[in-house]
Amino acid sequence: MTIRDIFDAMSYGPATESAAEAMAWLDTHGRRFGHFIDGAFTQPGESFATMNPATGETLAEVTQGSADDVARAVAAARKAQAPWAAQSGHQRARVLYALARLMQKHARLFAVLETLDTGKPIRESRDIDVPLVARHFYYHAGLAQLMDAERPGMEALGVCGQIVPWNFPLLMLAWKVAPALAAGNAVVLKPAEYTPLTALLFAEISREAGVPKGVINIVTGDGETGAALVVAKVDKIAFTGSTEVGRKIREETAGRGIALTLELGGKSPYIVFDDADLDSAVEGLVDAIWFNGGQVCCAGSRLLVQEGVAARFHTKLRARMDTLRVGDPLDKCIDMGAIAGPVQRDRIAAMVAANAEGDTHVAACAVPEGCFYPPTLIAGLSPSNPLMQQEVFGPVLVSSTFRTPGEATEMANNSRYGLAASVWTENVNLALDMAPKLAAGVVWINGTNMFDAAAGFGGVRESGFGREGGWEGLMAYLRPARTPRALKPVAPNPAPASAKVEGIDRTAKFYIGGKQARPDSGYSTPVWGAKGRLLGHVGTGSRKDIRNAVEAARGARGWAKTTAHNRTQVLYYIAENLSARAVEFAARLKAMTGKAGEAEVEAAISRLFTYAAWADKVEGAAKPVPMKALALALREPVGVIGALCPDEAPLLGLVSAMAPAIAMGNACVLVPSCAHPLMAADLAQVLDTSDLPGGVVNFVAGPAADLAAALAGHMDVDAVWSFSSADISGLVERLSAGNLKRTWVNDGRARDWFGAEGEGREFLAQAVEVKTVWVPYGEG
Ligand code: NAP
Ligand code: MG
């Protein structure tokens, strides 16, 4: 071979990272592990093997966690949590800082062990996963330090159950453990069955870092162990994994008054416009879909290329695919390692084999025998093809073309998922126009798979809810510290003994799409005043009325695009019109409740002013990420919010739910108090004269449980709030599993609607979705 040949081929020999240190560590444990509970490893019990998928060799035996093991771990965490939370933020910061330092000290051991257990390339575990893990602990040391001063009045949730998948075992652990500990929680974490080893190494390191015993517990096992953790006595479940299991967990945790965040699957679009830097976009796909064998939740697995450049782009892409190096994950020159296990490999193969459509290109690169799968591109699939809709979780890229930006948006959003999206264009105007239109929690402009502890990560739609990273991520492990007060049910006024109800013409209709609407059922009920006076009739709402109201709310989507200033004006105007009728409203309240209504009307006017003020003051942020990129946290409306309004304050309750929702650009369907439903009809008259576009606010009255069920079960509702009774909270959470909508429920706890807990940041946070838009710039 001549030097010239070598230059032409540019091939290079293997550069294998040594596994010796990792193997030696496994040996110190006799290659058999128990759980890590209360600061020590338990005796190994009934066990299963975890293997290196690249070689098929068994690395160690780990213990299959039983419900008893889970209960012991939860008990240890329970005992440790209060003292941990009682430490100062600074003391917790010291411990998190020590964890970060130790991660760096043992970086190589962690990286090699991760690669052995998962089959991912050492370049990924060494250069991406482990540095991000260390960064995560540094960042959260800072949040612990600042928390008391910056987020006063908040407290830790308690014991958090955390369940993670096999694609980023250590990184997902860090994303969950760091904020939980910073906030003062104790955790019980279940790693994935295939990849438990780095979690066990982390547990060992945590002792060295001075984490008090019981604050971190690791219970290994399979899905059953995970299921046992979900039903254990925990205060939160934080889950990363498939949408299917996420849905089950939503149902299991419903009505238990515990917190839940779900980071689920995706089918993320990767959009290439004709003016994009095509070579960079091709290289981006290596990171987006092939680097980790496509086993990335936010993998850009759906390629959308603008028609004019599609042929050229595909040619470049196929050429690049053919040069990918697939093989030994410990080799530093490898682009793509092994698939996590034979089951996954077979699943990928079966999904591809089942497809008969399109034009398939299998990379011409050499692919070893065993748990490996070749980089695959399938072009020209119809939008409804299963490969276009379902997550493959393998190195399989599907591709289609579009003509206009509008078409690209439509195709990109044609998915039940909403985790991430990439947009490639040199036109900054187009990029910034696209970002808000994409249904995704994260958007990368001219890039892909950028992550940082300071920037939020998480999905919308069936990709789950909640954000990890940044202050938002910390808040998901905190709750307002208030003395819980039980909700006292407010019953409708009873009918007087000798009631005559004929001849009343005031039947309150619903307010749907800016118009009065009759109840579909045709039924209405008399509503009695405080002194046995008949106040009117109210329609009995049904599923059909809710459907109509949701359709009207969907139709009012333009509200989300109005300027914040415009929303401010409308809210002030509603306040002004309510104020003009204050005397009349106070009298109505008196007739309903028997109590003077002036104070409540005044409070409602003030509340409208509060959200008029907030409408143009909820700020996005540019997150200080450690790279040349803007990571913009945009506050976007959630969409359509359904709310069961409180009984305790007929008018103020309605306004307190409505105003934050519309201030942030949402449309809403509100179910007024069961005790005093006529208030909604009165308020509708005020809205009608206040320049609020029809459909932005809709009222449907009726039996709370039926209407709550209709809202929670509706696929076009994005979030449901319940300030109604405890049973309604459970119902809403359970039925929301269908499209995994966000929920915010009171679990039967009362709120002081007249005071500070009746308004403010807590409401605003529920009314927005944080979208992180990454815009890298400069020469790298
Ligand atoms: P999975 O089957 O949902 O498993 C995830 C975790 O849940 C594993 O630890 C699993 O244990 C456990 N589990 C399984 N059944 C359970 C049950 N009934 N109750 C409680 N826990 C249960 O997901 P996977 O196939 O391992 O992981 C791939 C999925 O994760 C993909 O859909 C991917 O998109 C998603 N993901 C999402 C993100 C994100 O941030 N959004 C990040 C990474 C991955 P076993 O290991 O024994 O199955
Ligand atoms: Mg393994």
Give a written overview of the molecule.
This protein is of the alpha/beta class. The chain folds into 3 domains: 36-264 and 472-478, Aldehyde Dehydrogenase, Chain A, domain 1 (3-Layer(aba) Sandwich), CATH 3.40.605.10; 269-458, Aldehyde Dehydrogenase, Chain A, domain 2 (3-Layer(aba) Sandwich); 494-621 and 637-766, Aldehyde Dehydrogenase, Chain A, domain 1 (3-Layer(aba) Sandwich), CATH 3.40.605. A 10-stranded mixed sheet has the order 14-15-16-13-12-17-18-33-27-26. β7 (159-163), α7 (169-183) and β8 form a beta-alpha-beta unit. The model has no long low-confidence stretch (mean pLDDT 95). Residues 50-51, 117, 194-195 line the site of magnesium ion.
Key attributes of the depicted protein:
binds NADP nicotinamide-adenine-dinucleotide phosphate; 780 residues; alpha/beta; 18% strand; 3 domains; 26 helices; Aldehyde Dehydrogenase, Chain A, domain 2; Aldehyde Dehydrogenase, Chain A, domain 1
The gyration radius over C-alpha positions equals 28 Å
User: What gap, in angstroms, lies between the N and C termini?
Assistant: 36 Å
Specify the CATH homologous superfamily of the largest domain.
Aldehyde Dehydrogenase, Chain A, domain 1
Going across the biggest sheet, name each strand in turn.
Answer: 14-15-16-13-12-17-18-33-27-26
Write the CATH architecture name of the largest domain. Answer: 3-Layer(aba) Sandwich
Poorly predicted sequence stretches spanning 5 or more consecutive residues: none
Please describe the biggest sheet, giving its number of strands, its sense, and whether it closes into a barrel: 10 strands, mixed
Per DSSP, the total helix count is 26
Bound molecules: NADP nicotinamide-adenine-dinucleotide phosphate, magnesium ion
> Which structural class best describes the helix and strand composition?
alpha/beta
Integer tally of domains: 3
Kindly report the CATH topology of the largest domain.
Aldehyde Dehydrogenase, Chain A, domain 1
